[in-house]
Amino acid sequence: MCIAVPGEIVEILDADRGIVDYGDLRQEVRITLVEDLQIGEWVQVHAGWAIGRISREKALENLETIREVYALVYGEV
């Protein structure tokens, strides 16, 4: 099973790399698997690769679910 985490593209470094903002962390990711990405779009990231677009609405919903699961497993964030 793979888990992809949603994040917002905040910078495009070059044709292969971009910076994704997860809310409390920014990370350089590979963007070559998703065509024509623009700053402000949301993507699903797995193992350092943007693997697909996701709506902002769905991304925020998924992030909240991830936070809830984390809180259940490890205690409040």
Keywords:
single chain, 77 residues, alpha+beta, SH3 type barrels, five-stranded antiparallel sheet, 1 helix, 5 strands, 38% strand
What does this protein look like?
By secondary structure, the protein is α+β, with helices and mostly antiparallel strands. The chain has one domain: SH3 type barrels (Roll), CATH 2.30.30. 25% of the residues lie in helices and 38% in strands. It contains 1 helix and 5 strands. It has a 5-stranded antiparallel sheet, covered by helices on one side. It starts with a strand and ends with a helix.
- Tally of extended strands? 5
Count of discrete alpha- or pi-helical segments spanning 4 or more residues = 1
Mean pLDDT: 95
Biggest pleated-sheet summary: 5 strands, antiparallel
State the distance separating the first and last CA atoms: 25 Å
Low-confidence sequence ranges: none
Order of helices and strands: EEEEEH
- Rg, rounded, reads 13 Å
Major sheet: arrangement of strands: 3-2-1-4-5
The CATH topology is given as: SH3 type barrels
CATH class (first level) name: Mainly Beta
Outline: elongated
Beta strand %: 35-45%
Quickly count the domains: 1
What structural class results from the helix and strand content? alpha+beta
Helix content: 10-25%
Write the layout of secondary structure elements.
Elements: E1 5-12, E2 17-21, E3 26-30, E4 42-46, E5 49-54, H1 56-74
Antiparallel strand pairs: 1-2, 1-4, 2-3, 4-5
